[in-house]
Amino acid sequence: MPWSSPMVEKYRSQYGSGLDAQTYLGQNYLNVDRSLIPDILRLLRDEEQFDYCVDITAVHYPKREKQFDVVWILYSFPRNERVRVKTQIADGATIPSSVAIWPTANWLEREVYDMFGIKFEGHPGLKRILLPDGWKGFPLRKDHGILQQDNEWVRINLGIESGQ
Amino acid sequence: MNEHKNDASIHSLSNLDLDAPEKTYLDSNELIINMGPQHPATHGVLRVILKLDGEKVLGTECVIGYLHRGVEKIAENRTYTMFNPYVDRMDYVAAVSNGLGYCEAVEKLLNVEAPPRAKYIRVILTELNRIASHQLWLGTHALDIGAMTPLFYTFRDREEILKIFEKYCGARLTTHAFRIGGCQYETYAGFEKDIKNFLTFFAPKIDEYEALLTTNRIWLERTKNVGVISGADCIALGVTGPVLRASGVKWDVRKAQPYAAYSEFDFEIPTGENGDTYDRYMVRMIEMRQSMRIIEQAVNGLPEGPIMGKVPKVIKPPVGEIYHSIEAPKGELGYFIVSDGSTQPYRLRVRPPSFVNLQALDVMVRGLLVADVVAVIGTLDIVLGEVDR
Predict the structure, then answer these.
(1) Domain membership flag for residue B315
(2) Residues B12 and B105 grouped into a single domain
(3) What's the CA gap between A16 and A9, in Å, rounded?
(4) Distance (Å, rounded) from C-alpha B381 to C-alpha B387?
(5) Domain with CATH 3.30.460.80 in chain A
(6) Contacts of A21 (CB under 8 A, 6+ apart)
(7) Alpha-carbon distance B185 to B308, whole Å?
(8) Residue B333: closest CA among chain A residues belongs to which residue?
(9) What is the rounded CA–CA span in Å between residue A51 and residue A154?
(10) Looking at residue B203, which CATH number applies to its domain?
(11) How much is the pLDDT for B2?
């Protein structure tokens, strides 16, 4: 269902077709063009008081041309309101980091990189966070099997044939 | 002492350059020390690399992931019902809260609602679990700082809560207490009486804990003005839960966006002023008393009726996505679920409070002593099972 509010109208007139506002089960989200990131995020924080970045995550759709959805879940303390911002990017494409907007994005973006291999431009130290540094593979991609692992890493570092 | 806590420094978070020498007090070399992953004060397998000038902390870097089990990947390969017990294994000292958040998120996606009686039972058990989680926090946190008695007291009293869980659903820790759409188990005979007995039993016990610590001189010296973080820094770093409230931000998901039956109960949100370790201690102590208030209201007003909503036999939510969050004992616990219309979640993301709160460790300990790092890790109340998932 389309979502309409004074905030949405303002940004729609500013950005036109690059922005699409939807609502589902009472939750609002904005589908935005990759080129509007990070401007739209900064505007949401500075002008619309979305001062708390709850979460950053991604979803993998291997059959799509632009394989990844990157999702920011935002909350505003003054407005007591949540909004999600989503954008689509292709495999191998980068996306601007939002660490300068919300410092909490630091570890959240590292986790997205760790699990999906999406690179955030301008991140102060983008490296793996949950998996070991030398690990190969991005486990939350759909083409990564649930039993699949980096056998070479396991053999060298743990001295066993398989971690299973 | 707190001159580092300006906006600029938190933007350079976790950019600890281990090779770059910094000016030290005695012009000696700075020291790099490894703490963990096997260390009694890290509450699990957390590794912290400390950069020190003598005993003063110049910076830290956390190494996490030792308990990573790929919970989000497992979710994509299980049905909604099959995944339910897995969430208990994240924050295993507050398993009931995890289950509540997950069940409510899937219910929202399915557009069903749990009946009132189920909601009340959920509130009672979740608040009991909040008390149990805070008790475990208090015991281990005090032990880290050097007070041994609170550990024995809190574990002794926590046992009473675990006994109620065991009688209700057969498990003490990873309870799997709720189902999508309500509860599986009706309350056992004597449930209300057990809860009321617990409330009368527990009220003087909190006073007992407080008598040990609240005005204890050693406790005050070790916690006052230690690990100070401002409300603005908390928000910028996404820190939630008692840590945020102790810094003076009056925000609790139970009040801001009520879920389950929380809008029907009277309770206060305690806040602190200084954002130090002592305020976080006081906030959690008051929270336990407030949880007792909620439980008392819920058990007295426990409605009759069914405990299971109208849920289809096979759970197949329509295509769409949902974000639902609850106030877990550690902070905002959120579930972001994407459904493709099949019986398995297409993507399930957990927003873990411990993971996000741990990120604030570096900001909180810079300029403090090594012994205070232990106090700050304790006061953040992290559970590594949830940090690593």
Answers:
(1) yes
(2) no
(3) 10
(4) 11
(5) 6-130
(6) A2, A3, A4, A5, A8, A12, A28, A29, A30, A31
(7) 9
(8) A54
(9) 42
(10) 1.10.645.10
(11) 37
Domain of residue B19: give its range. Answer: 7-63
Residues 6+ apart with CB under 8 A from B216: B147
**What does the pLDDT read at residue B17?**
57
pLDDT attached to residue B16:
54
Peptide bond preceding B37 in cis form (omega within 30 of 0):
yes
Sign of CA dihedral B164, B167, B168, B170: positive
The number of beta carbons lying within 10 Å of the beta carbon of residue B59 is 23
CA-to-CA dists, residue B5 to A99, B194, B234, angstroms: 17, 48, 11
Chain B positions with Cβ closer than 8 Å to A: 10-15, 64-65, 68, 70, 72-74, 76-77, 108-109, 111, 235-239, 249, 251, 256-257, 320-323, 325, 332, 334, 336, 338, 346-347, 349, 351, 355-356, 359, 388-389
Identify any residues that bridge with B349 across adjacent strands, giving them in sequence order.
B336
pLDDT top residue among B54 and B272: B272
State the ipTM, two decimals: 0.89
Question: Does B27 lie in the same domain as B108?
Answer: no
CB pairs under 8 A between A and B: 99
Contacts of B251 in chain A (CB under 8 A): 77
**Alpha helix (H) ranges present in A16-131?**
39-46, 105-116
How far from chain centre, in Å, is Cα A114? 12
pLDDT (mean) for A21-33: 85
Hey, what are B121's tokens? 């039972």
- CATH code: domain A6-130 is 3.30.460.80
Residue B297 clears pLDDT 70, i.e. is over it: yes
The reported pTM is 0.87
Structure confidence by residue, pLDDT tens digits, B199-235: 999 999 999 999 988 888 889 988 988 888 888 888 8
Please report, as a single letter, which amino acid is at residue B340: D
Contact flag B356-A80 (C-beta cutoff 8 Å): no
| Strand stretches in chain A, DSSP E | 19-24, 27-32, 52-60, 68-76, 81-89, 94-96, 119-121
Pair B196, B309 in one domain: yes
* H helix runs in B61-148, sequence order: 71-76, 80-87, 95-110, 116-145
Same domain, B59 and B75: no
Q: What number of other Cβ atoms are within 10 A of residue B342's Cβ? A: 12
